[in-house]
Specification:
Blueprint (H helix, E strand, L loop, with lengths): L4 E5 L4 H17 L2 E8 L4 H11 L10 H16 L5 E7 L2 H12 L9 E2 L18
Parallel strand pairs: 1-2, 1-4, 2-3
Helix pairs in contact: 1-3
Length: about 140
């Protein structure tokens, strides 16, 4: 079976990078495009202000989509190491499940064109506020 698209979510955790590597191997074996997606939630104003006070001009690193973009860049490295050659990165604001569903819908094809493989991270999807550290 040949896939055109393989979609996988990442949050920058070790387990999500294992999912990225597995999805990348499948994409490489089938010549499919690998779509890496990451969800993020905006910081509350009080958190943004606290980050700005502590980090000064580096506060941009923990606001908006920057943490998600960083996770996607790291995920791309894992994907390329696993053999993926056609990699698309997407970071979208929202809960992880909603972002994955929306990404799949954007990439979907009519049923007659065949189905695509989707490899969600193992375990229960978790979203975390941009700038927060992952749960242990």
């Amino acid at each position: 079976m040949a896939y055109r698209t393989v979609l996988v979510g990442t949050d920058g955790s070790a387990s999500s990078f294992r999912a990225v590597s597995a999805a990348a191997s499948l994409a490489a074996a089938t010549g499919a495009t690998l779509v890496l997606t990451c969800a993020y939630l905006p910081m509350r104003e009080s958190e943004r202000a606290a980050a700005a006070d502590r980090l000064g001009e580096l506060a941009y690193k923990v606001t908006g989509s920057t943490p998600a973009d960083d996770a996607l860049r790291a995920a791309r490295e894992h994907a390329v190491a696993a053999g993926a050659t056609d990699v698309v990165l997407t970071a979208d604001q929202g809960d992880a499940v909603d972002v994955l569903i929306a990404a799949a819908a954007r990439r979907s094809r009519p049923p007659s064109a065949g189905s695509d493989a989707r490899c969600p991270p193992r375990g229960r999807p978790r979203s975390r506020r941009a700038g927060s550290s992952p749960a242990p």
